[in-house]
Structure formats: C-alpha cells, structure tokens
Design goal:
- The structure holds two protein chains of two kinds.
- By secondary structure, chain A is α+β, with helices and mostly antiparallel strands.
- Chain A has two helices and seven strands.
- In chain A, a hairpin with a 5-residue loop joins strand 3 and strand 4.
- Chain A is globular, with a radius of gyration of 14 Å.
- In chain A, 30% of the residues are buried.
- The C terminus of chain B is likely disordered.
- The chains are: A alpha+beta, B alpha/beta.
- At the A-B interface, loops of A face loops of B.
C-alpha cells in the first residue's frame, strides 16, 4: 500500500508547494501547499472516514458536488474536504455530523 | 416490426406496475413489463418514502392496512434491504378546524382498528423534541405502525425480483399507443415492437392519460411536481414521517433529512427544482423545527405525482373496452399502497374479482363529476 500511495503524488516533474502539517483526528499528517484536504488524506492512505451508522465513506466526485467528503475543519462542520486547501496546522475531524448546528 | 405475445402487458414499471407484474407472474401468467425508462425511476423512486396508513381517504384505509403487512415481509422476499422502519407517522395540526377534523378522522380510523392516537401539543413535542416547544400547534395524530422506507432501494430491488419471477422487463422502451379491435385492446406499440396480449394494465402514472387518449378514453388526472431537499447527514434527530400543512420531513438511515415541499400543479412534465421550493422550505421548516435554520441543504430533486379530481386513486377496468385496466391517480401517496394494489389487480385479472372491494376507485365515477383538470400534461 505504501508504494502505491507514494506513487499517487506526481513525481518531481511538477513544482511542489512547501511541505506543511495538518492534524487529522489528532494525528499529524504531512501535506503540501496547494493540495486539497481530500488529496492529502488519500496520499496519506486515509481512504475512508466514518459516519454515525458505522458505514465508511470516501471522497467520491472530488469536484465538490457529491458531498461525500464532508468533514469538520477547524471546528466548522459540513466542509467539503475536496474543496478545501491544506494549511499548516489545519485541524480536521473526519466525523461528519453537524453536531455544532443541532441547536 | 417484431411481435410479442403474452397473457398480460403492464405499462409502467413503477411500484404499481412492478407489483402487478410480479404477482401475475407468480400466478403463472406470461407478462411483459414495459417502461419508457428504468424501473422505479419516476414517482416511485422520487417520493418522500412515507409508508403511511393514517390520514387517507377512508376508501384507501383497508388497502393501506393490508399493504403494510406486505411491506413487513418485502426485504426478505426480495433479499435486499429496503430500510423499512415502523417508527411512526405524525401529522401536525395547526388550528382548531384541523383539530376538529382530526378528532373525527381518528375516531373513524380507530373504528377500523388502526392504532392512531390524537396527541396534545405537549405530547407532540414529546414524540418529536426537534419541534420547537413554542410552535403554534393544536395537536397531532400519531400512528406507530406507520413508517418509512427507502424508495431507491425498493426501485433497485424490484429488477432482480422481476427477473427471478420470470417477468419480461423491457426498459427504455416507451409505449407510444394502444390499439383496439372489436371492442378490446389488442396491442401496445413501441418503436421496437408490437406487444399483443389478452390483458393490458396502464400503470404509467403521469403518462397514463396520454396513453388512454390513444384509445379515445378520457383520464381526468393532472400532474403536480413534488420537490425534495436533502440536507447534510446529521445524528438521529427526527423520528418517523412527520407531515404538516406545507410539507413533510423524514430522516434517512444515513442521517440526511428529506424535506418535502408541497406539490406544484404543472402543465409541462419537466423536472427542474424551482426556486420557490427553496423559498418555501426556508419559510416553513424553521418555524416548526428551529434547528433546521442552521443546517445545510446539499441537493434536491423533483418527481411527478398524478392527481385525480377527488383525491382518490383510480383502480379500475375500462368500461366498454375489454382487456384494459388502469391504476393511477395516487395523488402522491401511493408508495404504501403499491404492493397491495399489485396483488388486487393480479387477483382481478386472474380470478375476475379482488379480495378487497375496489368499487370506490372506479374510473366511471368521474362521469358524474365535472373535471377541473387542465389540458393533459405534455412531456418536455
């Protein structure tokens, strides 16, 4: 898995942005400036995330229209991971439930 | 031109047509089931998913009560999950007139042994805490053997079930017209073939009236566009199928809320979501469910419902023309009834009569009624 995951990032043919760190469910994950959260998760081997009934989900369309990749990012729930750029110190929780809005 | 011969041709592979075809094939009839598109891709696959006995025209109640017995065994019969849950249906009452009407209705429904209760406003909020406690309600009616199912899963399960039962299913093959000869319907014509049979069933929903015209028969039904808005998934917050004056709400197993907005009368059968649906949803839902104000809608879709002039379905044999049955005009609440309607039509076709009286659903009752239906909807 590791080799094929490493192969997911395009090799040195492109200019890669600066290396940075995002926090995913408490774990530090390396990412590169210019990537989306969804891409960084895939590159890190985190293909699926959980929803409340225990069934795994993954980013599906990757173009922002299917809403399968909704996550809580920097405390805001319901954010599309495929439409969000990584930033140093970005905090991602892959639980998808909009608990912060159930008032 | 190719010819196919069979005992029965059913037109329309929605819940009505599919169950009719299924039960006929199980009674050893050769059946062709034809649809202009895929199985269950129109009203059936686009509905709110309520499987509801209460709050119906009284004539429908016996069918609904038998239908839920069939629903209870469907997932096992099909070997596929349908997410059918009996977590209740709740109808909210907004004023004294509605309360009075509900009192009479509940009394009548309970006489038929339906387990429906009249609730006080406090009891309504008890059942559905997501309803704001200062919402203007005069009460509610709750039926705990009612519930919901997943329309897409049902549509998906029908295909293999039909194949296993030996129904010949031809999808993406619209029937253009029927042909009659010597006082009976003899064929259904598509661009690909002529389907000849003893008996024909028109279960083509919003397209049924157009097909009736090819036989010179008037079907006084009109179309409405129902619209559903889907929210992001939430942890469980809404139980059952809750309906109120301007819409309904249920929560899918994955957590998404389905917000149903009341149907819009239309002349043209086109499926775009209207801006008014968003406006109406934004106006009506937060008044009853305050938390919805902050929830994201992620998608929406529409479906057509077929309305009869008196709000009651039409399940009948054509008068004066042999071999032609009709099942349509379910006014947006056919999902529960489907499995039972299919069984009753199969009985009528095979045995000459059905185990439940269908005389209240006659086509000829409209001869006495001046129809207000606009000119038939055309497809766009």
């Amino acid at each position: 898995m590791t080799d094929s995951v490493k192969a997911m990032r395009i090799g040195p043919v492109s200019d890669r942005g600066a290396s940075l760190e995002i926090i995913v469910d408490g774990d530090p994950i390396q990412a590169y400036s210019g990537e989306t959260v969804a891409a960084a998760l895939m590159a890190a081997g985190r293909w699926t995330h959980q929803i409340h009934n225990g069934r795994p989900l993954a980013a599906f369309c990757n173009i922002g229209v299917c809403y399968s990749c909704l996550m809580t990012i920097n405390g805001v729930s319901g954010v599309r991971a495929c439409q969000t750029h990584v930033a140093d110190g970005l905090i991602i929780e892959t639980r998808r439930l909009a608990k912060d809005r159930l008032k | 031109m190719k010819y196919y011969d069979s005992d029965v041709v059913v037109v329309g592979a929605g819940i009505m047509g599919a169950f009719t075809a299924l039960r006929l094939a199980q009674r050893k009839r050769t059946v062709f089931l034809l649809d202009k598109g895929d199985i269950g891709r129109e009203s059936t696959g686009r509905c709110g998913g309520g499987v509801r006995q209460q709050y119906r025209d009284p004539a429908e109640l016996p069918l609904a009560m038998k239908a839920i017995d069939i629903w209870a065994g469907l997932a096992e019969e099909f070997g596929e999950p349908l997410e059918y849950r009996r977590h209740g249906s709740l109808k909210l009452l907004h004023n004294d007139a509605e309360l009075e009407e509900a009192q009479a209705r509940v009394a009548r429904e309970r006489e038929s042994a339906l387990d429906v209760d009249l609730l006080t406003p406090a009891e309504v909020v008890d059942f559905a805490p997501a309803i704001g406690s200062d919402t203007d309600l005069t009460g509610g009616t709750l039926c705990m053997t009612d519930g919901t199912a997943n329309p897409l899963l049902l549509a998906r399960a029908l295909g293999p079930a039909l194949d296993r039962t030996g129904v010949h299913v031809n999808t993406h093959e619209p029937v253009r017209r029927f042909i009659e000869a010597d006082g009976r319907v003899v064929s259904a014509i598509t661009d690909q073939a002529e389907y000849r049979a003893e008996t024909f069933v028109n279960a083509a929903g919003s397209w049924a009236a157009g097909l009736c015209r090819s036989l010179g028969l008037d079907l006084p039904c009109s179309a409405r566009k129902s619209q559903l808005l889907i929210t992001e998934p939430l942890s469980p917050i809404i139980r059952g199928f809750i309906s109120f004056g301007n819409g309904y709400i249920r929560q899918a197993l994955d957590g998404n809320l389905h917000l149903g907005v009341r149907g819009l009368p239309i002349d043209v059968l086109e499926k775009s979501l209207t801006y008014s649906a968003l406006i109406d949803a934004g106006r009506f839902f937060p008044k009853i469910f305050p938390f919805i104000r902050n929830i994201n809608i992620i998608r929406g879709f529409t479906g057509f419902t077929t309305w009869s002039p008196d709000g009651r379905p039409i399940i009948d044999k054509a008068a004066g023309l042999d071999g032609f049955y009709l099942a349509t005009g379910f006014c947006g609440h056919g999902f529960c009834l489907g499995p039972m309607v299919g069984q009753l039509l199969a009985e009528w076709i095979c045995d000459g009569s059905s185990t439940l009286d269908l005389s209240q659903f006659s086509w000829t009752r409209f001869n006495q009624i001046k129809s207000n239906a606009k000119s038939q909807p055309r497809e766009d």
